[in-house]
Amino acid sequence: MPTSWALAAGVGTVLLAVLASVLLGVQHLAPPAVLHALLGDGSDPQTAAIVAARVDRTVIGLVVGAAVALSGVVLQGLTRNPIAEPGILGLNSGAALAVVLGIRFLGLGTVGGYVVAAIVGTVVVALLVQSLTALAPRAAAPVSMALAGAAVMALAQSLIGAVLVTDRASFDSFRFWQVGSVAGRDAGQVLEILPVLLLGAVLALSSGPTLDAVALGDDLARGLGQRVLLHRGLAAAGAVLLAAGATALAGPIAFIGLVVPHVARALVGVGHRRLLLLSALLGPAFVVLADVVGRLVAPPSEVQVGIVCAVLGAPMLVLVVRRVRGV
């Protein structure tokens, strides 16, 4: 598909997702009532509150989706591993563990504080997973990295559970955040971590040439004039900042960074400049639509967006792993 058409389709998908997110929910609202609430022209207070909550979760879903999708593209490019993704590699769980520990023992209570803790947790887990992968045979690196990430993720989740069980207040406050959710958040929280997300996005979006060169191998990349270590470090920093910011904002949401890059790659090919741009559009649409599905699938209750993304993303992981084994 031509890049311009793919980008136009991505923009259209985002707009449809936003429209569905504002109009649909457990509480049925007629479109005119939603429009009046958005315009603020004296609509019913309850309707206005419902619409405001939908707008907040839509904004957060857009931000989180873009951040995790871009992080997934960069991680897959840097590792040359088709199943690399913040959730599968345990980065989200490491960030969540660091946030929970910060809340329990350091008294963190702001999104800005969560980001600092999440960055530390993400970096530690990334180094640990990379070290474990290095111990495995090189031919088995893709699956070994996924297994190392799964092991670290299981350990982090166990530690999170242990901390929350011993602290009832923390458990009550973060049981929904722990599985990944855009509900109950204030869109104003995005402003607290906007510098981190913007820096991560700039580093990720500018890493296209580096990722294209790395795909050819480090030796050839050096021959093309790339300062491989520096550019790899900058791209990795962008992926870490995006994953940490998204986790601090909405909790650990997995599989977005796996599914979106593969869908985008099927549409525009392997060039990372185009891949990054399209993923930055498809990621938000995926998260927002998953949130809408979670609202509608089991009324009057809601299914958290992290659970919906896992249900939709797990089959993609199986397909990608089978393809890697076939190659």
Explain this structure.
By secondary structure, the protein is mainly alpha-helical. It has a single domain (3-8, 83-326), classed as ABC transporter involved in vitamin B12 uptake, BtuC. Helices cover 79% and strands 0% of the residues. The chain has 14 helices and no strands. It has helices at 3-23, 31-39, 45-79, 91-106, 111-134, 141-166, 168-179, 189-205, 208-215, 218-223, 228-250, 256-268, 272-296, 305-326. It is globular and about 65 Å long. The mean pLDDT is 83. This is Iron ABC transporter permease.
User: Helix coverage percent of residues?
Assistant: over 70%
What's the domain count?
1
Distance between the termini: 25 Å
What is the N-to-C order of secondary-structure elements (H for helix, E for strand)? HHHHHHHHHHHHHH
The geometry reads as globular
Rg for CA atoms: 20 Å
Mean pLDDT: 83
Largest sheet: none
Give the name of the CATH architecture.
Orthogonal Bundle
Please identify the top-level CATH class: Mainly Alpha
The number of strands is 0
Q: Give me the CATH superfamily.
A: ABC transporter involved in vitamin B12 uptake, BtuC
Q: Figure out the total of helices.
A: 14
CATH fold label: ABC transporter involved in vitamin B12 uptake, BtuC
| Parts with pLDDT < 50 across at least 5 consecutive residues | none
By secondary-structure content and strand pairing, the structural class works out as mainly alpha
Strand content: under 5%
Labels describing this entry:
ABC_transptr_permease_BtuC; mainly alpha; ABC transporter involved in vitamin B12 uptake, BtuC; Iron ABC transporter permease; 327 residues; ABC_BtuC-like; membrane; 0% strand
